[in-house]
């Protein structure tokens, strides 16, 4: 069995039952010398090999992932009493994949993605608002090109863990490890 198919099913169920942000996941990255950082991002798809998300390549997470290309994510779906964890190596999506996703975003999101130097200090939000207005005028009637500093990452799953809430804290934890191309299940104590 491929646990990513079940993971994708859990995300689909969360899209129905979770009131807000079913795709939100905590993403952990670390510097080359192993100092961790974590923040929420949106999962934009789970396939049979892993999952994808989009961000600024020069953001803190982008710089950390480029220097140390490994990530861990965790979803929590309170409505379902479930947690899903995925770990593995990370790579950038192709330019074509990032372009395809970028072109489907609302225009306002495209523009803010283009003007925001994500994770860098700024003098004020007004500065970004002005740049947003300027870019909106400059590209009137035309597509906004994807900035080269913005795009997707793919986390190739090597570990997947399904956590299901149980009575009296006897939660079920099923961990899957990819070993030699084969997924191996293990039941873990809660
Ligand atoms: C629910 C939620 C979803 C978010 N989704 C994204 C996302 O998909 N991509 C992204 O770059 N930032 C997203 N953010 C903002 C990040 O949490 C973070 O502030 C930003 O990416 C900068 O992080 P960094 O400085 O660690 O790189 C989201 C925040 C929240 C609260």
Bound molecules: flavin mononucleotide
Beta-strand segment tally? 9
Amount of beta strand = 35-45%
Helicity range of the residues?
25-40%
- Count, helices: 5
The CATH first-level class comes to: Mainly Beta
Outline the biggest β-sheet: 9 strands, antiparallel
Q: Going by CATH, what is the homologous superfamily?
A: Electron Transport, Fmn-binding Protein, Chain A
Shape, please?
elongated
Report the uncertain regions.
none
Rg from Cα: 19 Å
Number of domains: 1
Please characterize this protein's 3D structure:
- By secondary structure, this protein is of the alpha+beta class.
- The chain is 29% helix and 36% strand.
- It has a single domain, classed as Electron Transport, Fmn-binding Protein, Chain A (Pnp Oxidase, Chain A), CATH 2.30.110.
- Strand 7 and strand 8 (172-179) form a beta hairpin.
- It is elongated.
- The two termini are 23 Å apart.
- The relative contact order is 0.18.
- The mean pLDDT is 97.
- The structure holds flavin mononucleotide.
- The site of flavin mononucleotide has 16 residues, from strand 2, strand 3 and helix 2.
How is this structure best summarized?
This protein is α+β, with helices and mostly antiparallel strands and 190 residues long. The protein has helices at residues 3-17, 60-67, 95-103, 107-115, 125-138; strands at residues 24-30, 36-42, 50-56, 70-77, 82-92, 150-156, 159-164, 172-179, 182-188.
């Amino acid at each position: 069995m491929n646990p990513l198919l079940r993971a994708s099913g859990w995300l689909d169920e969360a899209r129905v039952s979770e009131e807000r942000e079913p795709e939100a996941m905590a993403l952990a990255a670390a510097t080359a010398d192993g100092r961790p950082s974590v923040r929420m991002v949106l999962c934009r798809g789970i396939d049979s090999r892993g999952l994808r998300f989009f961000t600024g390549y020069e953001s803190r997470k982008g710089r950390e992932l480029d220097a140390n290309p490994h990530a861990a994510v965790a979803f929590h779906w309170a409505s379902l009493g479930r947690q899903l964890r995925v770990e593995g190596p990370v790579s950038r999506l192709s330019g074509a994949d990032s372009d395809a996703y970028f072109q489907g975003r609302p225009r306002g999101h495209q523009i803010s993605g283009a003007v925001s130097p994500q994770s860098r200090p700024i003098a004020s939000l007004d500065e970004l608002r002005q740049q947003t207005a300027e870019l909106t005028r400059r590209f009137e009637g035309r597509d906004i090109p994807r900035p080269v500093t913005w795009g997707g990452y793919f986390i190739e799953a090597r570990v997947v863990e399904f956590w299901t809430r149980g009575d009296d804290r006897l939660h079920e934890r099923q961990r899957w490890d990819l070993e030699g191309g084969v997924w191996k299940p293990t039941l873990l104590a809660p």
